[in-house]
Write a structure and sequence with these properties.
Length: 207
């Protein structure tokens, strides 16, 4: 029948729900990293909090077990490219939420120019078009290690892996654009987004 215990959340939400500065910063993160909702921010913050809390405890400790745990923590964070090889515990305390979000598969697919936009990157992953090595990954929040980063590519079984696919041709066309042309294109996208936001605000007021 299975374990009847209720599964617990692996993240914590803000103590105060209506803080303007925090809400504005969360909106920026959601837009910049193409997140589905703010829950993904809270999960990343909880992951970061676990790292920093462990680092704080290890700074105060001086036992042999603490030294062993410090080595394990440093090795783990280096594995995920969150710190450098010669980093120290104080460097872990300097990590921020963006460092965690940068290691998500969705972000890396976009930065490797496998998608035109950060939201399209999410769509490609969810629909099974992206793989790491020989594994198909369908989780946008998958935490990518240093060794896996260079293995990110289109799934060979996906139609988008073919050079003749329309989306691949769009990607190639965008990469050939000059910096000035890309800037003009980005301005047009920003203008369209602003118009959509204004329409949504107008609809909300009429309600």
């Amino acid at each position: 029948m299975g374990d009847p215990r209720k599964p617990r959340k692996k993240y914590s939400t803000p103590g105060h729900p209506w803080q303007r500065s925090r809400i504005d910063s969360e909106k920026i993160l959601v837009e910049e990293y193409g997140l589905k909702n703010k829950k993904e921010i809270y999960k990343s913050e909880s992951k970061l909090r676990r790292f920093t809390t462990q680092a704080k405890n290890l700074i105060r400790a001086s036992s042999e077990q603490a030294i062993k745990e410090e080595q394990q923590l440093m090795s783990k964070l280096f594995k995920f490219s969150l710190i450098q090889k010669d980093a120290k515990l104080d460097d872990i305390l300097a990590l921020d939420i963006k460092k965690i979000l940068e290691r998500r598969l969705q972000t890396l697919v976009y930065k490797k120019h496998l998608a035109n936009t950060i939201k399209q990157s999410r769509q490609f992953i969810v629909h099974g078009h992206i793989s790491i090595g020989e594994r198909k990954i369908t989780v946008p929040s998958y935490f990518v290690s240093r060794d896996e980063e260079n293995k990110i590519s289109f799934n060979p079984l996906s139609l988008i892996s073919k050079d003749t696919h329309s989306e691949r041709m769009k990607l190639e066309t965008k990469q050939k654009l000059s910096p000035e042309e890309k800037q003009v294109l980005d301005k047009k996208k920003a203008r369209r987004k602003e118009n959509r936001d204004n329409k949504d605000k107008f609809k909300q007021r009429r309600r």
